[in-house]
Design brief:
By secondary structure, the chain is of the alpha/beta class. It has two domains: about 190 residues, Aldolase class I (TIM Barrel, Alpha-Beta Barrel), CATH 3.20.20.70; about 30 residues. The chain has eleven helices and eight strands. An eight-stranded parallel β-barrel has the order 1-2-3-4-5-6-7-8, surrounded by seven helices. Helix 6 links the parallel strand 5 and strand 6.
Length: about 220
């Protein structure tokens, strides 16, 4: 399973890229606004760091979405255009996909919506795990259902588990068969953390320092 970060913060993305573990980025209007940057400028900067950068449309009608999607796709070869899973979003996505634009159908909450995305040749489908959990539904079960349906039907659209709130969501997405998991930077950081790792490092370093003490004493006494 590939790992993406869900952020438009350039410094966070640069740090994650430096760790060598992520291969893509997902953004949305909220994240762009939080970063305090112009949409086009920020997406282009991110595309210079990593491939597969999802940039979201903000218009609502089919024809407007097509125009906007073409414009976003022109920003960089690494851009993937996000459209919402609505009749207009799906219809615009079909036109754009037919023109060779990679499409990420976002705000997916059911297997049926995922089948609609697959029908237009979407590159990614983004089921929102955390938002489903928020309303008492099982977000991971939806991811698993989409994966199962796609495998049964031989569908090549990639399942991108989104709205992941904590490291366990990442684990569960992998076990459910998701192709990609996208997460906030803080969740990526948390994936590294375990108290036994921290205590193990401290013990190793303490033992190492002890091995250096006799050598240091020997060097001093020989002077």
């Amino acid at each position: 399973m590939r790992l993406f970060v869900d952020t438009a913060d350039f410094d966070e993305i640069a740090a994650a890229v430096g760790w060598g573990v992520i291969s893509g980025v997902t953004t949305n209007p909220t994240l762009i606004a939080r970063a305090g940057q112009d949409h086009e400028t920020q997406v282009k900067r991110i595309c210079e760091l990593v491939a597969d950068v999802s940039a979201e449309t903000v218009t609502e009608k089919k024809n407007d979405l097509i125009v906007e999607g073409r414009r976003i796709a022109s920003w960089h070869e690494n851009v993937i255009v996000k459209v919402a899973c609505t009749p207009d979003g799906i219809a615009a996505g079909k036109v754009l996909a037919g023109e060779g634009v990679k499409i990420n159908v976002t705000l997916c909450f059911t297997v049926n919506q995922a089948l609609l995305a697959a029908a237009i040749g979407a590159y990614f489908i983004s089921p929102f795990v955390g938002r489903l959990d928020d309303i008492g539904e099982d977000g991971i079960a939806v991811v698993r259902g989409i994966v199962d349906a796609y495998r049964q039907q031989g569908i090549t659209t990639k399942v991108l588990a989104a709205s992941l709130r904590h490291p366990m969501h990442v684990t569960q997405s992998a076990l459910a068969g998701a192709d990609i998991a996208t997460m906030p930077f803080k969740v990526l950081e948390q994936m590294y953390k375990h108290p036994l790792t921290d205590s193990g490092i401290e013990r190793f370093m303490s033992d190492y320092r002890k091995t250096q003490e006799p050598q240091a004493l020997g060097q001093r006494s020989g002077r």
